Amino acid sequence: MNRKFEVLVVDDDASIRKRCVQLLHKKGYAVEGVNSGEAALSMVEKKYFALVIADIRMPGLGGIELLEKVKGLSPQTEMVMITGYATVESAVKAIKLGAYDYLTKPFDIDRMLKVVENVQAKFSLGEEVRFLREKLDTYSESSHIVSVSEKMVQIFKLIEKVAPIDCNVLIQGESGTGKGLIAQEIHWKSPRSAKQFVVVDCASLSETLLESELFGYQKGAFTGAYAHKDGFFKVANHGTIFLDEIAELPMPLQGKLLRMTQDHEIVPVGSTKPVRIDARIIAATNKDLEGLVRQNRFREDLFFRLNVVGIHVPPLRDRREDILFLARSFLERFKLKYQKADLTMGPEVLSAMQTYDWPGNVRELENLVQYLAAVSEGDTVRTESLPEKMKSASVCSGIDNSLSSDDDFNAVRKKYLDDFTRRYLLKALRQNKGNISGTAKQINIRRSSLQRMIKRLGITDTESN
Length: 465
Description:
Blueprint (H helix, E strand, L loop, with lengths): L5 E5 L3 H13 L3 E5 L2 H10 L4 E5 L7 H11 L4 E6 L4 H9 L4 E4 L4 H31 L10 H13 L6 E4 L6 H10 L8 E5 L5 H9 L16 H4 L4 E5 L6 H13 L1 E2 L8 E2 L3 E6 L3 H6 L5 H7 L2 E4 L8 H17 L6 E2 L1 H9 L5 H15 L4 E2 L6 H15 L6 H23 L4 H8 L3 H10 L4 H4 L1
Parallel strand pairs: 1-2, 1-3, 3-4, 4-5, 6-11, 6-12, 7-8, 8-11, 13-14
Antiparallel strand pairs: 9-10
Helix pairs in contact: 2-3, 10-12, 13-15, 14-16, 17-18
């Protein structure tokens, strides 16, 4: 995010201008002040200001004219107008022309600071969206891999370097981290992209069947072999073969695969004649392959042949900056699929996602977002739709993150008890469409007690319906 939140104060009254600049500077804002509309316009032409606070009545270029010109030059710049003539007409005109808000002289300092704070919050959100869109454009031009984490950015850079080089690649990482997508990306960016990308799940086939599927077989090689069949390696000739779950490959087959990596030859089942194969090998595993080598459960020579370039994909819990980015990206896709264009995720849902550890990684997150998009009613995904394990993880994480040695037990207990009570009552109220009598009967408490809790916890009619 390259743009900073900077403020420009425009007022021909030196005392007001200086007072605003001093107050904002004291609060930590980057702020400048000028005494005329012409000077302000010149400043806006030279640099970006997120907020311009301008007096409506100034000699020469007045505030309304300045508002129109600034919006023409920099549409994203917010304008707040100051007026000593608090007429409805001037305020309405400024708002219609795009002003964010207006202040009346003599203006309340706290109100001014609150307005600036609100503009800054809007600016920060806009910058985050802009940043994420730029990242999405950068990293998803030819694939489904999207990320904003520095760890994944380094992997993307490695893919760019490795893809054009015709060497074997070993991708390691937990299930659901996107190893298959990375393999596809390497293939698509390689000179072999016009040829086949063949996927083999080494864990899904028995040893006998896997050998014939990998290397093919001759007619009569075994019962049921009524004709010659090409194996996966032959199909992948001049292309790429992706050996997923390579750690599950039986030892005898590891030796035969070693021959392929060394001599680029295979021998079909039932044949003695080698077949020359030109295929790039990308292997993947969720196991510690080096650990298996030490345990003599995976051939060391094959490990080194496959691990010419090694890529380790971090789990989602180790790149938490990707969680909300990916969740929003998946939501956009599933909104289209389920025709729910206005669907959004509430802040409590996003918070729960951010604190959950995602043992199933990106695949688990994608599946959850699809489920939420499918089952959610209304325009907002609420916490009631989340799995119980995510709700409890969110509460525990909140306690862990907020607790300090100075916290009073009773105060912390009350806070989290109130949080639970509020969520419970909201769920019950929504089930009863906000009907207090029906809700009280359902959860077995007196109507008057429910009304007191609703008032104490600040539950509004909008939330409970």
